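Homework help board

Subject: predicted structure for assignment chain

Our instructor gave us this sequence and asked us to write out the predicted structure in token form, then describe one feature. I got the tokens but I'm not sure how to describe them. Can anyone check?
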Amino acid sequence: MKVLVAGANGTTGRQIVSLLAKEENHTALAMIRKEEQIEDIKKAGGEPVLADLEGNLDQAVQGVSAVIFAAGSGPKTGPDKTTAVDRDGAISLINAAKKAGVKRFVMLSAIGSDTPEQGPEGMQHYFKAKLDADEHLKQSGLTYTIVRPGALTNEEGTGKIIAQNKLEDPKGKISRADVAQVIVSSLEDEKTYNQTFEILNGNVPIKEAISDL
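My token output:
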């Protein structure tokens, strides 16, 4: 399965690429914007694909079986960039994937995206951009999975999480390593198809947690 990873040069994206590269049945196509990122991507085991979420994406999705959207401007880059990447970039990639006949799309979203108006003032625009992208994916006809983690950390992964469609207590953290593993594990797990779920640090092995959704 050829899997295109958007945001492959980000902290979480690069871990996704590395995990995919270790699996014999997957080829990690790592979407990056800059040529100087190529060597780092190759070291991670990915095959570089030069493309920009703010540009034309038709070539990037050719021959691809699945797309993972792990890109993000983050809440600190300003609202214009958040709109351009987290909303419009995601929507453009969804549209390009559908046009190219891609069937599978996994979206890295965020806890709080379903109710952006309830988030901290500095995060509301970011959450709204994520919500718009998530809703567009749901309506696209693609077989989707939307993964919404809590606050991300750079700690080592534990391999254990809590996963629910809607967590009773959504406050908490999760390592980027565990988020990457959840996303890769979700790719071919039919229990995650057309599902939106939230994840935090927990005590259930990842594959078990997402298969119990």
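Reply (TA_rk): Your tokens look well-formed. For the description, you could write something like this. The CA atoms of residues 155 and 175 lie 5 Å apart. That's the kind of observation they're looking for.
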